[in-house]
Amino acid sequence: MSKKARVNGKIEYREGDGMNLSIPLGPCEIDETALDVTISWVDGDTHGSTAIPLADFKRHVANKAIEVVDTTPA
């Protein structure tokens, strides 16, 4: 179930073997499982999503790079 969140700091991810890319600052949605968290966002006309390990997500929340703004399902 999706939750609303906000990216407030630098969060990078990698598509395949490519370069590190940054998730844009601003609103996003998160879907958490036992192992990872999928982050989805819109940046202009571009829609993006990536999955990151749950431990990395928790670190980003602790560092305030991600703020979960709605703890109820979307």
How would you characterize the overall build of this protein?
The protein has one helix and seven strands, in the order ββββββαβ. Strands 6-5-4-1-7 form a five-stranded antiparallel beta sheet, covered by helices on one side. It has a two-stranded antiparallel sheet with strand order 2-3. By secondary structure, it is mainly beta. The chain has one domain (2-68). It has one helix spanning 54-62; strands at 2-7, 12-14, 20-22, 26-32, 36-43, 46-53, 66-68.
Task: Jot down its keywords.
two-stranded antiparallel ribbon; 5-stranded antiparallel beta sheet; 74 residues; 51% strand; mainly beta
- Tell me how many strands there are: 7
Biggest sheet: strands side by side, in what order? 6-5-4-1-7
Shape descriptor reads globular
Q: H/E order of the elements? A: EEEEEEHE
Number of helices: 1
Average predicted confidence as pLDDT: 93
Quick structural overview:
It contains 1 helix and 7 strands.
What does the secondary structure layout of this molecule look like, with pairings?
Blueprint: E1 2-7, E2 12-14, E3 20-22, E4 26-32, E5 36-43, E6 46-53, H1 54-62, E7 66-68
Antiparallel strand pairs: 1-4, 1-7, 2-3, 4-5, 5-6
